[in-house]
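A further point concerns the way the authors explain their paired sequence and structure data. Since the whole study asks how a given chain folds, the encoding of that fold should be made plain. A single example would do more here than another paragraph of explanation. An entry of this sort, consisting of the sequence and the corresponding backbone structure tokens, reads as follows:

_____
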Amino acid sequence: MLDKNMQEEMEKSSSSRRKMKLWLFRKLRIKDSWRWRWRFLGSAFKWKRIHFQLSFFDDVLFKIVSVFEAVVLVATLCFFFLCCGCHI
């Protein structure tokens, strides 16, 4: 009687452990599958139509920022040569 009860409890605990392991594995597998699904679905939405107004403003802004950056770099170089006493 005692052995039979102990054996039943051991079987229940081993089956519950097995279920827990399967549940964890299934949870991980589902998590990975969703990651792959989103990766492939996300690639479908990357290509967008170019709006000409936005592209035009982007080009103009890029040119203005490039000129400003060039002026700042030349001013920094001149400041270095003037402050350090170096001569060209």
Summary: The radius of gyration is 34 Å.
